[in-house]
């Protein structure tokens, strides 16, 4: 393309135009706080605050926190109710009372569960020994435990189980109770007004209020 004027001026202007087109955009960081150091930035030409340094970052952070808090709008009634020491103390007291009540209920529940677990463990042992007691009763009825070391051992076993609350159900002449008696045979009886246990075929057992096994009995009924 033809041109006019000085060749050097033409080349110089072309170079300047090329440089202007290739120049990268400039990004300016206008943040007031340096994200790396945490210190406040000062405008160009401004004088730094005397004594500024690492300790100023705490002051700047506090100032920013105060600015944020001041910018939050809180209703006057709510701020008065929550800001008074008496209201905070009352709320803290209620929290402590609630925690105390929860702890007391938890402790009672743990103690109750522990007692139930202990009772069930004892009942499990007693149930496992009921067949042994049946054999002892059968041997005693046949005269095998009238005397001797085995009779003493059987007596000690029965006394030891009584300490754990084991009670034998073997009374005769009492009114039939379906909760503790199992009627295997019914037969008419003389001078009987209500169903009455006339004979115990197999003893029953209970521990406290819990019936471990009902007694198998013969029941005399009114004629």
In words, what does this structure look like?
With 223 residues, the chain is an alpha+beta fold. Helices cover 50% and strands 16% of the residues. The protein is built from five helices and six strands; from the N terminus they run αααααββββββ. It has helices spanning 7-22, 56-71, 76-83, 85-141, 149-162, and strands at 166-169, 181-189, 196-202, 204-207, 210-213, 215-222. The strands form two sheets. Strands 1-4-5 form a three-stranded antiparallel β-sheet, covered by helices on one side. A three-stranded mixed β-sheet has the order 2-6-3, with no helix packed on it. β4 and β5 (210-213) form a beta hairpin. It is elongated. The termini are far apart. Mean pLDDT is 76; it is low at 1-21, 45-55 and 72-81.
Largest sheet: 3 strands, antiparallel
Strand content: 15-25%
Oligomeric description of these chains? single chain
Low-pLDDT parts are 1-21, 45-55, 72-81
Quick gist of this model?
The chain is α+β, with helices and mostly antiparallel strands and 223 residues long. The chain is built from 5 helices and 6 strands; from the N terminus they run H-H-H-H-H-E-E-E-E-E-E.
Describe the protein's topology.
Layout: H1 7-22, H2 56-71, H3 76-83, H4 85-141, H5 149-162, E1 166-169, E2 181-189, E3 196-202, E4 204-207, E5 210-213, E6 215-222
Parallel strand pairs: 2-6
Antiparallel strand pairs: 1-4, 3-6, 4-5
Helix pairs in contact: 4-5
């Amino acid at each position: 393309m033809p041109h006019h004027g000085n060749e050097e001026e033409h080349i110089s202007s072309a170079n300047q135009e090329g440089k202007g087109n290739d120049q990268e955009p400039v990004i300016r960081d206008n943040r007031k706080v340096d994200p790396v150091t945490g210190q406040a930035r000062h405008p160009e030409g401004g004088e730094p605050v005397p004594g500024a340094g690492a300790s100023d970052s705490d002051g700047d952070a506090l100032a920013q926190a105060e600015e944020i808090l001041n910018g939050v709008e809180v209703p006057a009634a709510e701020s008065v109710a929550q800001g008074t020491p008496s209201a905070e103390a009352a709320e803290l007291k209620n929290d402590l009372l609630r925690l105390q009540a929860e702890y007391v209920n938890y402790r009672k529940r743990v103690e109750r569960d522990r007692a139930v677990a202990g009772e069930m463990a004892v009942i499990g042992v007693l149930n496992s020994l009921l067949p042994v007691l049946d054999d002892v009763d059968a041997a005693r009825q046949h005269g095998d435990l009238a005397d001797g070391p085995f009779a003493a051992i059987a007596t000690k076993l029965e006394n030891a189980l009584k300490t754990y609350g084991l009670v034998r159900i073997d009374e005769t002449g009492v009114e039939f109770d379906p909760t503790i008696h199992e009627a295997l045979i019914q037969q008419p009886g003389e001078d009987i007004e209500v169903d009455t246990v006339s004979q115990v075929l197999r003893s029953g057992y209970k521990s406290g209020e819990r019936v471990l096994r009902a007694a198998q009995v013969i029941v005399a009924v009114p004629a």
